[in-house]
Amino acid sequence: MTTLTLAKAINEGLRAAMEQDPKVLIMGEDVGKLGGVFRVTDGLQKDFGESRVIDTPLAESGIIGTAIGLALRGYRPVCEIQFDGFVFPAADQIITQLAKMPLRSLGKLRLPVVVRIPCGGGIGAVEHHSESPEAYFTHTAGLRVVACSNPVDAFHMIQQAIRCEDPVVFFEPKRRYWEKADLDRDATPVPFDRGRVVREGRDVTLLAYGPMVKTCLEAAAAAADDGRSVEVVDLRSLSPLDMEAIVRSVRKTGRCVVAHEAPVFSGLGAEIAARTTEACFYHLEAPVLRVGGFSTPYPPSRLEEHYLPDLDRVLDAVDRTFAF
Amino acid sequence: MTFDASQGAEAPPELVQLLTPEGERVEHPHYDIDLTPEEVRDLYRDLVLVRRVDKEAVALQRQGELGIWASLLGQEAAQIGSGRALTDADMAFPTYREHGVAWCRGVDPVNLLGLFRGVNHGGWDPAEHNFHLYTIVIGSQTLHAVGYAMGVQRDGADAATIVYFGDGATSQGDVNEAFIWASVFNAPVVFFCQNNQWAISEPLEKQSRIPLYRRASGFGFPGVRVDGNDVFACLAVTRQALKNAREGQGPTLIEAYTYRMGAHTTSDDPTRYRVASELEAWKLKDPIERVKAYLFRNQLADQDFFDAVDAEAADLGRDVRKRCLEMPDPEPLDMFDHVYVEPHVLVAEERDEYAAYLAGFEGAE
C-alpha cells in the first residue's frame, strides 16, 4: 500500500503500461524533459528514452494524426493534450479519423490510441484552461470516453484505457491532481466501462464524474448532518454509460441529480436525465435535475467559484428534488 | 507587391522530364532510369488498364450504379510511376483518387467501387496491400503517413512511406503539420503531391504564390517538380526519394505537375470554371500517348501488343462492370458492426432494438 497523488497515480499507471508493453508510447507537448506541465509524465522520458516519450511540435492535430499513423503501425500511443481548451485543433483528427477509421476498415484496422485531457476548472487559470469538453466526444460514435476522479481509479483506468483496443478519450480532473489516496496495486480494478457507488444512501442519488465526485461526496456528508441519506455514483465511463449502475441506484432512491462542470444545456447530464427518466419513470418521486455550468463561456477565474457547481448548489438541487 | 527576384523566388520552375510528350527519351543530370523493353511495355499496360477501369467507373456512375466517382483521367502516369516505385514493404496512404496506385498495390478495382457505390466506406485490407484506405477529408492522411513512418523508423525496418495529396491539400493545416513533423523527426516519408492544377473549381493561384515543390525548402527538406504525365520521370524521381527515405535521409516533397483532364468528380461541371483550350493543350501531353510513341519509335512493341492490351482492357472493363453490379448491398444490422472492437453496451442495445423493430415487419406487406 502506497499513498500517492492523482497525478502520480497516472504517472505510475503509465510507467506500468510502458514496462508491460514496448509498443506503448507517450507523445505530447512538454511531456519529455519537463514531464508535462502537470508533471504527469515526470521521469518517463529519462527511463524509457526519447523514442518512446516524444516531445512533439506544438500542433494538436499533428499529435493525434501521427498517433493514428503510429497505431496503424502497431504502436499504442498515449497522447497528452496539454489543456482541455487546446483539444479543438485536434477535433478533426479525433472525430473524423480516430473515431471512424476502424468502422471504415470493416474492423480490419484498430486504433488503440489514448487521448489524455486534463479537464475542468478551479485552478485560477486564464481562458481555455478550465473547460469540460466531454460532451463533444461522447456525441461521437467510435470513441470511448472515461473520467477518473481519484488516485486509485486513475492508476487502474489509465492502464485499462491503454490496453483497450478502441480509442479512448481520458479525462483527468486537473484540480484534483494533488489529491492523495492509498493505492493497493494488487487489488482487482473495476472494469473501466462501469460506474461505481462511492457512497451509499437511500433518499437521493447524485451522479457525478471527474472533479465533481469529490464535491458530491462533500455534499452528501453535509446532507447526512441534516439527516438526509445521499447516494453518490461515480460514473467513471461517460461513453458508454453504465446505465445498470444508474438505474439500480435511482430505482432505490427515487430521486436523482446529475452534476457536472460543463454547461447544463446539451451537456452529458441531458442524456443521463433522459435515459434515467425513461428507465426509472415509475420509481421517480421528482424529475431528474441537473446542476452544472451556465450557458456562458467559462468566466474569468475570479468568477469561477460562481460558475462551478459547489457543495451548496448541489445541495440546492437535492433540496429541489424533495420539493416536488 | 512582388517577390524579390534576387532570392530566386521568380526563377523559372525546374521540371524533371525523361520522356517528352512526343515520346522522345531525354536525359536529366540528376535522375535516370534504365528500363527493359518489357518493363516499359508493363508500364504502358498499367496506364491503359487503369484508364479503362476509370472509364468504366464513370459510365457506371452515369448509369446510376455508383453514387459518385472521382476520375483519375490524366493522372495515370503520376500514379503508375510512383506506384511502381514502391517495394512490397513500403506503405502508401492515398486520397480518394489514387485508383492507379491501388492497381499497383494489387487492390482489386472492384473493391474501390464499394465506397462510391455506398456499400462500405473502404473495402480492402490495408495491411494485405500496404495501401491504406481512401481518405476523404483533404490532407488528413498526410499526418497518418508521417506517424506510420515514425513507427517504421522505430522498428528499424527497411521501408518507406508515401502519401498522396493534391494541390488544394497543400493549404490544409494538417499537411503543413505533417511537413513539420516529418522534418523534425526525419521520418522516412515521401510527400507525393499531384498538382492537377484544380481543386474542384479553384485554380492553383488560390492555393499558392510559389511553385508547390519550393514549399519544401522552408520546412527543411528537398522538393522536386516532376513532369506528372511522364511515367518514366515519376518512377525515377519517386524511386530516388523512397531510397533516400529508407536510407535515413528523411522526407522529400515531389510535386507531380499534371492535369485533371476530367471533372473533379462526376458531380462536377468544369465548363463553369475553365476554358476548353486548356484541356486541349494538356491532351497533347497525354501520359499514355507518349509511352505508345516511345514504344513505336524504338520498335519495342508491335501492333499485336497494342491490340492485346486493348483487348485486355476491354475484358477488364466488362469484368469490373459485371462484378460491380453483383456487389451485394449490406444488411441493415451491418452498420452496428465494427464501431468498436471490444463489447459496447450501447451499440449492442441499439442493434438489438433495431433488429426487434425490423422483425416486427416480417410477414407484413
Automatic annotation (TrEMBL), chain A:
Transketolase-like pyrimidine-binding domain mapped to chain residues: 4-179
Classification via Gene3D superfamilies: 3.40.50.920, 3.40.50.970
SMART domains xref list: Transket_pyr
Coiled coil: none
InterPro entries according to UniProt: THDP-binding (IPR029061), Transketo_C/PFOR_II (IPR009014), Transketolase-like_Pyr-bd (IPR005475), Transketolase_C (IPR033248)
GO molecular function, one term: oxidoreductase activity
Cofactor(s) for this UniProt protein: thiamine diphosphate
Keywords carried by this UniProt record: Oxidoreductase, Thiamine pyrophosphate
Alphabetized Pfam families for the sequence: Transket_pyr, Transketolase_C
Protein name: 2-oxoisovalerate dehydrogenase subunit beta
TrEMBL record, chain B:
Keywords, comma-separated and alphabetical: Oxidoreductase, Pyruvate, Thiamine pyrophosphate
Tagged with keyword Secreted: no
Residues in Dehydrogenase E1 component domain copies: 47-315
Cofactor: thiamine diphosphate
One Gene Ontology term of the molecular function aspect: oxidoreductase activity, acting on the aldehyde or oxo group of donors, disulfide as acceptor
Pfam families with a match to the protein in the record: E1_dh
An example Gene Ontology biological process: branched-chain amino acid catabolic process
Signal peptide: none
NCBIfam families documented for this protein: PDH_E1_alph_x (TIGR03181)
Protein name: Pyruvate dehydrogenase E1 component subunit alpha
